[in-house]
Structures are given as C-alpha cells and as structure tokens.
Amino acid sequence: MGFSLSINTNPLVNRFAEPEDVIAVLTDEIGIGHIQLVHEFINPSWAASTVKRLTDRMAKACAEKKARITSIMTGPYGRLNHFTHPDKDVRDYYVQWFKGMADIAADLGAPAIGTQFGIFTYRDYDDPKRRAALMEIALACWRDVGEHAHKRGLTWMFWEPMSVGRELGHTLKDTQNLQDWINAAELPIPLKPMVDIDHGDVSSPDPADVNPFQWASRFATQSPIIHIKQSTMNKGGHWPFTAQYNENGRITPDNLLSAVRSGGGVDNELCLELAFREREPTDRNVVSALRESVAYWAPYADTGLG
Fold first, then answer.
1. Phi, psi angle pair for 45, to nearest 5°
2. Full strand arrangement of the beta sheet holding 156-159
3. Is the pLDDT reported for residue 231 higher than 90?
4. Residues in a beta bridge with 8
5. In terms of CATH, what superfamily is 4-297?
6. pLDDT band for position 233 (50/70/90)?
7. In the chain, what is the straight-line distance between the N-terminal and C-terminal CA atoms, in Å?
8. I need a surface site. Which of 60, 149, 191, 277 has the fewest CB within 10 A?
9. Are 144 and 91 in contact (CB under 8 A)?
10. pTM above 0.85, yes or no
11. What DSSP line would sit under 203-237, residue for residue?
12. Coil, helix or strand for 153?
C-alpha cells in the first residue's frame, strides 16, 4: 500500500470555519486529500443538532472533493488534563466528550481518535502514589471510551508521546514502557502511540531522545500515524517544509523514510503537523506554506488526490 501523506488541521483553526471552506482549501489549494481533523471544527460539546449539521456538511464536502478524514484528535485548544484531571467529575465529563468525538469520527468514516494519554499537574506527577493511581484511572477512562468507539465501528485509538515527563512519553524508553503497559491491558480496541519526530525531552542525557530518526525508526511498526515537520537542532517550532526552513532543517523525505523503513514501517501515514504564528506576514502565508510542504512530500507518499 505504501506511505500516505496527510495534514493535521491545526493551522486552519480560526482561519477557516465552514466545513466546505476547510475541505476546499485542503484539496484545491493545498493539494491534500488525507485529513487529520482537529476537534475545533466540530466540537463534541456543542449542541447535538449543531454537531450533526456540521458533521453532515463535512461528510458531504469530503465526498464531493474525494477527501477522507483519516482520524480525529484534539487540537491546539484541547491540550488538557482530560483523563488524569484530579477531579472525578471533570474526568467523567471528558469520557463523555471523547465518546462524542468517536461518534463524529464514525459519522465521518474515520477509524481512529486520539489525544495525549493524560497530562498531569505538577502536584499529581510529583507524588508517586497519586501518579500511579491516576494512571490506572486514566486507563479505565480509555477503556470506557474504547468500548463506545468499538460499538461505533472505530478500529483503534492513539495517544501522543510528548516532551516533558508530566505529559508522558517524553523519552523513547518511557514511551515504550507506557505502550507495553497499555498493550497488556487489552482494551476493546487497540490504543497505539502516534509519535512526533520533533518531540522528546531536551533535558534527557540520551541524545536519542531528541533524535527524530530514532523516534521514526523505533516506533515505525507501532505508530500507524507519524507527525512530521521540519526539525532543527534547537527544536524551535513546528516548521513547514518550505525552502526557508529546509535550508537548515534536518528532515528530508529520503532520510526520514529510510529511518521508518529501517524500523520495519511500510505503510505509515506521515501527517504534517505544523504551526504558524498569528503575525504578519506569517498569518497570510499559511496556505502557501502548507501547499509547498505537501508538494515537497508528494513524490514520496500518497496525498489521497488522484
């Protein structure tokens, strides 16, 4: 089947809102048909009638443009404690919220949803007993969401390894240990890692923990989706694959795909997860930068458009 290329819609949040506009700019202007949708475009907490109306419009727009929502995840305004929040009522709210996300995904034909496994407060992370108890609670929350997602026809879920300990998966070892623990739990549908080549703890004594090629290689067979962006030694941002950033960037299609293949990957979804500041001229160059990034990768991975 080969590698595929997709775009996470983080950069489009607030810049576009109408489902038809979102899909049209992706397919017609940026040149991509595989889409990782973020929740800001259809938020599970909105009124049910609003969610249904916008989901129907999104599904129709995808059908007309022959685009596909490959997954749904939390977006830039959803990086929250969720299942490791210290308050039970808040956790219960988010269990229902993610069940709503699973419903939206099912109605859009997407097989997977995801977010961080859980984000800890300083207090809860620094207290081993509180941390261990909340880890078990978070796993139970994922199980609850997974049962509902399975009933709606989803086939897997994902969690994103991050870059600091309290957000979990900040090193290669911690990511693997957490994934082994998740696997042993045998959830209703698999919960898999979705690694990001530019994540990792910069304070780690092991240089591999901030090596994008190590992340790509070591989790090639476990991470169906891999978040990609241009990476520099200082890990300064979610840079696009434009001439400006490629000049000093470490990532090329050849060297990244070589790393994925060396780890056994053959059909991963390479998802462009980029970010752009709300400053001019950057703000008005988002679409052109995304278009250039897709064109840079298009010879190496299926974009989903003819």
1. -85, -10
2. 191-193, 156-159, 112-115, 68-73, 34-38, 4-8, 269-272, 225-228
3. no
4. 36
5. Divalent-metal-dependent TIM barrel enzymes (3.20.20.150)
6. low
7. 15
8. 277
9. no
10. yes
11. T-S-GGGG-HHHHHHHTTTT-SEEEE-B--TT--S
12. coil
